Automatic annotation (TrEMBL):
InterPro entries: CD300_family_receptors, Ig-like_dom_sf, Ig-like_fold, Ig_sub, Ig_V-set. Keywords: Membrane, Transmembrane. One of its GO terms (molecular function) is transmembrane signaling receptor activity. SMART domains: IG (SM00409). It is found in: Membrane. This is Polymeric immunoglobulin receptor. The keyword Disulfide bond does not apply. Residues 66-162, 170-270, 277-370 form the Immunoglobulin domain. GO terms for cellular component: plasma membrane. The keyword 4Fe-4S does not apply.
Length: 384
């Protein structure tokens, strides 16, 4: 008996020309190793190759090319697959690996299962599978399937996972309490018309939903966003900074078919005041002198003492019979003499030498005034 082999090239050409989409083209090549004992068998094999492939592969066909999806570890991802008109009532499913019976993860007839849930939008003809709590083992090859008699329709999906943090390079910005600061974020020219935004933290997966401001809103409370499309930079201005504004920020640029692009900012807001903070104790009824150093460049400025928890909420102390102010330019200090203290003088004071409160060598004074019991007075009362 004469043995003959089916040429490998012919097998692959048949697979391609007949539009038989195999989930692994190596299956086609396995048929090239088949040996036949006669010319008659050889002729039969060529004529019936399609039939054999259909039986072995369950006549699998493919709807579109490969869908690439990227998700964040620990978060969830949506895998959306379209299908043609007429298949609205057919069962859909998502499977993994080679899509054997044990590889089916979820079907539209059982729409919630373990970490998977599926929704079939029959109007848009798109069914979407959500995979939650993504782990590194979830990465890899998937198939969107549409069940039909004889021929299931498959679309290949490649799922890639990345860590939910950003970034290797961080831009550091330093400012002070009460000031305004601008944060600049660069982007590539192809994203001129894309949505831009900024959020706190360093988790890309939730940045857009937690955005402080976007290029659509432009103004939101203390935040303003300006987009210079010529320079490829969007700038976020933050007014009235507080130390609570310190921390990590992400600048985001939205991409429709891929993960958004991010750059990282680290903002440090320092306490505006002071080179020196003093804690002074005084006694009610006694005099007290406060010394207030100031920067040499403030020598010709008006000097003042004000009272308040914050410099922005500080009331000037009027110089009167109880308070007097004396400037000593030689020592770059001014002195406030209090003729006698009152318990109501307790509080926070600021030595001022610049009405605009620009950053400089100011002094913050915490004054505590206490009363002292008159022991001799008590003795006198007892004798009487």
């Amino acid at each position: 008996m004469e043995e003959s082999a089916i040429p490998s090239l012919l097998i692959v050409q048949l697979c391609t020309s007949l539009h038989i989409a195999v989930k692994d083209h190596s299956v086609c090549l396995t048929f090239s190793n088949l040996k036949f004992q006669s010319a008659k068998a050889k002729m039969w094999s060529l004529q019936n190759l399609l039939f054999i492939l259909c039986i072995v592969l369950r006549c699998v066909t493919s709807a579109v090319g490969v869908i690439h999806v990227t998700g964040y570890v620990g978060r969830e991802v949506n895998v959306s697959c379209s299908y043609n008109e007429g298949y609205e009532s057919y069962e859909k499913y998502l499977c993994k690996n080679d899509c054997g019976s044990d590889d089916v993860l979820i079907t539209t007839s059982n729409s919630v299962k373990n970490k998977y849930r599926v929704h079939d939008d029959k109007t848009a003809r798109i069914f979407t599978t959500t995979i939650t709590d993504l782990q590194s083992t979830d990465a890899g090859k998937y198939w969107c399937g549409v069940t039909r008699t004889g021929n299931d329709i498959y679309t290949k999906v490649e799922l890639k996972l990345v860590r939910d943090s950003c970034c290797d390079t961080v831009t550091k910005v330093q400012s002070y309490e009460g000031y305004s600061e601008s944060v600049s974020c660069r982007y590539e020219s192809q994203y001129q018309n894309s949505l831009k935004y900024i959020c706190r933290g360093n988790q890309p997966s939730t940045c857009l939903q937690d955005a402080l401001i976007t290029s659509d809103t432009k103004l939101n409370g203390r935040f303003r966003l300006d987009d210079d499309k010529v320079l490829g930079t969007f700038t976020v201005n933050i007014n009235s900074l507080t130390q609570n504004d310190s921390g990590s920020y992400l600048c985001g640029v939205q991409r429709n078919s891929e993960l958004d692009v991010f750059s990282a900012i680290e903002l440090e807001v320092e306490e505006w005041c002071c080179v020196k903070a003093k804690h002074i104790n005084g006694i009610a009824g006694r005099p007290l002198t406060l010394q207030c150093p100031y920067p040499p460049q403030h020598q010709n400025n008006r000097k003042f003492l004000c009272k308040g928890d914050h410099r922005n909420k500080c009331t000037d102390i009027l110089m009167d019979q109880r308070f007097t102010l004396q400037d000593d330019a030689a020592s770059s200090s001014f002195f406030v003499m209090i003729r006698y203290l009152d318990v109501h003088d307790t509080g926070t004071y600021w030595c001022g030498s610049d009405p605009q409160w620009r950053v400089g060598n100011y002094t913050k004074i915490e004054l505590s005034v206490v009363t002292v019991r008159c022991v001799t007075c008590d003795i006198g009362r007892t004798r009487s």
